[in-house]
């Protein structure tokens, strides 16, 4: 018997041919009439098949393709407890996911998302697979198991479930000690428009990675990168939507009194300010956020309207943000005059 010969009344070529990844679980093979003894015979040394992972068989003798390694790792991780059978499209539940509660994460996921600073799939020794924390699985072969108490919603990329960029990035960073590589990955995530800095830092914080000095340094660069991009979008929004020119990047003080805080844009004649929120949650940021809230409340008690804008809003709905600012400027004529403040360059 050869790997090209049908082994049961339900031939294998309908699943292993036609450009499909030629990899199946032993349970799937049994459903096609291939006994365990026959599978073992086919996977003998020099045989036409090979066992790629426990319970997962590669249906050809050569090295697996990157796609076959991805599917093999998912099949290994998605095996149902006690049966070893992953759910498959078109089975009992036709709309069920092919690989329930598992997804590709880490460097492999970032490569699938289109990162240029990650290694190509063939050069990765292992494929990271995210699974629920209580699953009884061990890393083996090309499958490296990553556990989590809360599974994110996967994204479908080239036909496989992949962790969202921020989560995949945190899982990748967890295994990296090179500060330069970590910095490049985080910077590409922002520059490439894959995700916002806040989402990245939130995942790094939840993974308890912000205690590592090289990660903290990379995060500081990431936040600076995010602020620079947000400021550029703010300048562009003011220009493109015809808002009056503000004074940019200023500090406010009461005459002979205390420092009131810094602002990204301020219209003195209207007492309207814009503050970009480019900060992200950090383990030690509770006091910082409280101070930010106190500053905003103090300015508003002085009659200064503070418009709070996030980088995401500037990116996704600049016209709406311009309308909010324009409305605040127009409404200034109907408000009580604001307290006099001193405006200084930041």
From TrEMBL:
Source superkingdom: Bacteria
Disordered: annotated span: 1-22
Protein name, UniProt field: DUF559 domain-containing protein
